[in-house]
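Sequence of Glycosyltransferase (Trifolium pratense).
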Amino acid sequence: MYRDDKGKPLLTLVSRKGKSRKLLNEEEVIKLAKDVGFNVRVLDHSKGLTVPDVYQLIHSSHVLLGVHGAGLTNLMFLRQGSVLVQVVPLGLDSFSSVCYGKPTKPLGLEYVEYKVEANESSLAWEHGADSLMIKDPEAYIDGKWNNLKIYLGEQNVKINLIRFRKCLMEAYEKAKIFMNNTSYVTD
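Predicted 3D structure, token representation.
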């Protein structure tokens, strides 16, 4: 029930279909995850899944991967020892840590974080790499909600696959440890 017939860890990718924080190279990330050794499934909330369907999908996963956003609240359905991989968009370091990074420890989850660099953010392409918004997000936000909303509502990411491979390898190693420590097998 919790692994495929080849003993690969199951990675569920939360796909964002809204206007912001989309993973622009999602198909390439899926291919990379498969190359690393994962069996990959995609959670697309726009498909009208029921809560029990989402629960079953997440609970059977060894790794939950997604860009910071509401879809990562599904971490509540992960089993202790599972891995959360959060892609942290530019300017959302503190926000991401508080929302999803810190809660993983008391839930008994492993946590892997991938911080987006400026050249991976659509904001840099739109506003220029030399703008304060890109060079120093903390100074740009300066406690102003309207400035933070730009990072939350107007940013998409295109992950650097070379850098991200390291993140996926770390998640894979943690997932394999989790698999070896659990007694669940394929039905």
